[in-house]
Specification:
Largest interface: A-B, 62 and 62 residues
CATH class of the largest domain in chain A: Alpha Beta
Mean pLDDT of chain A: 91
CATH architecture of the largest domain in chain A: 3-Layer(aba) Sandwich
Shape of chain A: globular
Strand content of chain A: 5-15%
CATH superfamily of the largest domain in chain A: Dihydroxyacetone kinase, domain 1
Number of domains of chain A: 2
Radius of gyration of chain A: 24 Å
Structural class of chain A: alpha/beta
Oligomer: homodimer
Chain lengths: 571, 571
């Protein structure tokens, strides 16, 4: 469990402050995460990574000379928001584009993709290479669905070394892709971890058992076996990775970077015992190990587990891997770089302008504040239950994530209403605040919903039932587009789409009354949310079939129905 | 607990092999531990550290450029033997003497002091600075009795940087002493750890409590309190260290190196949260923090705990602390040193010569083999019980340590008897093997006992009861001298001294029969061993009053009596 905690809600902020204070010569805080303290003199492709906190040294600990230029740091085990990724990328852009590279998790993909879109809209060349090294998380024919674990490091490191050598964007992207194509990992777990502020473990492994392939957030593995000896585990891991030698690599005479990673409470001495046998097995097969790493590279708090990574290098990747680096947590080779600080421009991200709005739209905005307050209240009242529902098949943070987002939206809605915003701007900025503060998948989607509705309503016309129905329908389309889910996949869409359809019908019969149209659509949304109990989740997780969630409604759909019902009472 | 284990008896060997394999560019294996892979071109004072394994990066992880030249690596939580320390020191001596520096624990002091004596006997200038930073382990007026914890790093680092700059032995020693004088730490623990192969924790902390001042082997702390918040803990630790500002240091305007150390399963994110408040508190008091470190510096497997270290630097210590270093686990600053490998002389430690012996002494040596085999057998049969006795007030390794030592002595006795050694040489070499293989305090003392007896008996004269009584009496004196204990301190001396006295009396009345004299002395030794149940331990532990051991005899005295009794049956 986590012992050194104040208010769990402040944990991520405080750890980032402490991390930056302890490493002020190497990293600096920027909106959304951290960036290198030193600015490169010459233009170069910027490498931006990120993810949930709780995996140190991933991701902030890997920012510095020869590695990432910046890291977006989300809440505990929750992806950073699109705004965070965007802000970090903007802070580190050095004129030759931005490569986003991170582990393949649904929430991260969603938020990094949104940030990429925004950067591209601004004319910045932005590319993405997601890391997919975990062989347990999908079959070889579905490599793109695999999660990223300790192999993150090989991809980030080689991409960054290439950027440091002045490679252009195409070349850096190719290096990162090739490094990912040549990296395979397998993890095992012996126990789970308990997040800051929680009383019970987020997940667990039965005593005396080992979960083969369990992910760094407790994602189910491929099997559960009796605890092996260290040597037996080494054999198991090497055999599994040997069955996955990348296309085009011949093991005979090959050079291999080997990483042995500890998840948290399997300690260094044990990792060395494991590496001892791994290195013997690998060398017995005629492969030369170069520049291995044994230690804690991607952790999950005090989770007891370990992973083995094989990175099959060619000559170019070998020299990129071997290049010097100097970050808070990863230092390698001899640096001849001047590490002295160069002064940096302060926060260059301009504040937004509140556009002028019509009187009717400002009136609607005042009403929208009440609506958003009601959303905040209903989420507050149900946060524990939403967390409980989410813990059955997910990571249990839906309640706290929704709460964080809704509270941020309330604060922002009040602020922009006082600045005389129209309803469109108010919903847009409130949605952005929600997504930024909540992080994770649900944060990104709720940000999208509010922003889309706001864009449709605008700051001029009075909202009508028809316009609102159209806006809600558009928001469902936007969620489908960003989230990659469809109705029946056990997500919030299962409540949102029936609601949008009911609202469209009701608006046709009650075009003058938002209140009546909305009220008529609550029951279909609630029924649809309950019906998700009969579904299996289809997206958003690398292991699609989580039977244990059968019989439990989807927490995202439930919170959607709760909000729809609460809003009805305010109209 | 430890998960990645083969035979627990092989754990230390395997971890050292794996560690060296993973860091072959930086360290190499030498008899007794590890040494820097690179040899310095110019003569310099060699810095040698060491201690029990299980504290990585202490101690092998701190060997490399700008830090230690070598580390003697003992078994899990057991000091290295004198032979190990000696071997490592010999391997790294570079012509300007050897500074031994390590944490202040009885077993380490014993073994490092013996090694120092041997090095000095060979004309090598050898000095010692023990680290005593743990303020919880003795009062300010008894600073020399304090244990060494994470403050090890500041002392090793500054001494090594000074050696690297070409300081002579006097100057390096002074730097190490000054660094130790200016370093203070306080640790807390939330849970214990379970050693490789063990089923139950070596020690524990009640759920929801924090042990203030608990040591890295579970040594009792100064109080047990309810779990505080991270901020409350920061305040507690800073206040305690503030009450211990070293003489001659004025905090106003001072420069302070701050270390936040995690013991194993209190993870990086939590350590950063703690550091965040620590740095605020320190800076609010007008002190400037320079080059802090937050991470795992001295661990205890998966023990949940943390420590805070203040190192009050002057200008010279500041620059020594800031100097570059490059070791497996500690890398700092920009290195302009050529890290290419220079070929090293292979093991330079010559094998011993077996001196010629008289026929009667060779006969006695054959008898001694039987005696030592009987010792091995009785220890084997009682190892579990000895471990249980030791776990009540100690670290539970007395059984396994004695077993390891006695087995090594048996192997060595057989080998040298076959090489026609006399009884004196046989006992001397068997004692050295015991001490080398067992490590720890009991290993050093049993090595001393056998070596002293062997020296008195020699390889010429037939052993008589009188000579043996004199030899045993001398061995008790040697143990007193090396161990710093006396009768009544609840150690093996409580059995050995009454035995020596009884044997002296019995030899006077039965001068011709070793068998009779010995048999007459068994009962007094057994009675004295049992009587240690009424005593409290006085030495060998930094916290002298371990009431919980009352009612339990001392495991060292018990094993002494068992051996005395077993030997009687072989004579």
């Amino acid at each position: 469990m986590a012992y050194l905690v104040n208010d769990p809600n402040d944990f991520t902020d405080e750890l980032i402050d402490g991390f930056v204070a302890a490493n002020s010569g190497i990293v600096r805080r920027v909106p959304g995460g951290v960036a290198r303290a030193q600015k490169s003199a010459t233009p170069a492709v910027a490498i931006v990574t990120g993810g949930g906190s709780g995996h140190y040294p991933a991701f902030g600990g890997l920012v510095g000379h020869g590695l990432a230029d910046g890291a977006a740091m989300g809440n505990i085990f929750a992806s950073p928001s699109a705004q965070q990724v965007y802000s970090v990328a903007k802070a580190v852009t050095r004129g030759k584009g931005v490569l986003l590279t991170y582990g393949n998790y649904a929430g991260d993909v969603l938020n990094f993709n949104r940030a990429q879109e925004r950067l591209r809209d601004e004319g910045i060349d932005c590319r993405t290479v997601v890391v997919t090294d975990d062989i347990s998380s999908a079959s070889p024919t579905e490599r793109s669905k695999r999660r990223g674990i300790a192999g993150d490091l090989t991809v980030f490191k080689c991409a960054a070394a290439a950027a440091g050598l002045g490679y252009d964007m195409d070349a850096v992207e190719q290096v990162a892709k090739r490094a990912n194509d040549r990296t395979r990992s397998i993890g095992v777990a012996f126990s789970g971890c308990t997040l800051p502020g929680a009383d019970t473990p987020l997940f667990s492994v039965p005593e005396g058992k080992m979960a083969v392939g369990m992910g760094i957030h407790g994602e189910p593995g491929i099997s559960e076996v009796d605890m092996p000896t260290a040597d037996e585990l080494a054999t198991l891991m090497v055999d599994q990775l040997w069955a996955e030698i990348p296309d085009g690599v011949s093991p005979e005479g090959a050079k291999l970077v080997v990483l042995v990673n500890g998840l948290g409470s399997v300690k260094y001495e044990e990792l060395f015992v494991l590496y001892n046998r791994v290195s013997q097995l690998v060398e017995a097969r005629g492969v030369t190990i170069i520049e291995p790493e044994v230690g804690e590279l991607v952790t999950s708090f005090e989770m007891a587990g370990a992973s083995l990574t094989f990175f099959w290098v060619d000559d170019e990747l070998e020299s990129l891997w071997a290049a010097p680096a100097y970050t808070p947590a990863f230092r390698k080779g001899s640096l001849h770089t001047d590490l002295s600080l160069e002064s940096l421009d302060a926060d260059e991200l301009a504040g937004e302008q509140i556009p002028e709005a019509s009187a009717v739209s400002r009136e609607a905005a005042a009403k929208a504040v009440v609506v958003i307050e009601a959303i905040g209240a209903v989420i507050d009242a149900n946060a524990d239950e939403l967390g409980r529902l989410d813990s059955i098949a997910g990571d249990g943070d839906h309640g706290i994530g929704m709460q964080r987002g809704a509270q941020a939206a309330v604060v922002e809605a009040r602020r922009v209403a006082a600045a005389e915003a129209g309803v469109g701007t108010l919903l847009g900025l409130s949605g952005a605040a929600w997504a930024d503060r909540a992080g994770g998948t649900s944060g990104a989607l709720w940000g999208e919903i509010l922003t889309t509705i706001g864009a449709r309503l605008g700051d001029a016309e009075p909202p009508t039932a028809a316009a609102l129905a159209e806006a809600v329908t558009q928001s469902a389309a936007a969620v489908t587009r960003y989230g990659g889910a469809k109705v029946g996949d056990k997500t919030l869409l299962d409540a949102l789409v029936p609601f949008a359809e009911a609202l469209t019908l009701a608006a046709a019969s009650s075009p003058d009354s938002i209140r009546d149209a909305w009220a008529a659509s609550v029951a279909p949304a609630e029924a649809a949310a309950s019906a998700t109990a009969d579904l299996l989740p289809k997206v958003g997780r690398a292991r699609p079939h989580l039977e244990k969630s059968l019989g439990t409604p989807d927490p995202g759909a439930v919170s959607m129905a709760l909000i729809i019902s609460a809003v009805a009472n305010t109209l």
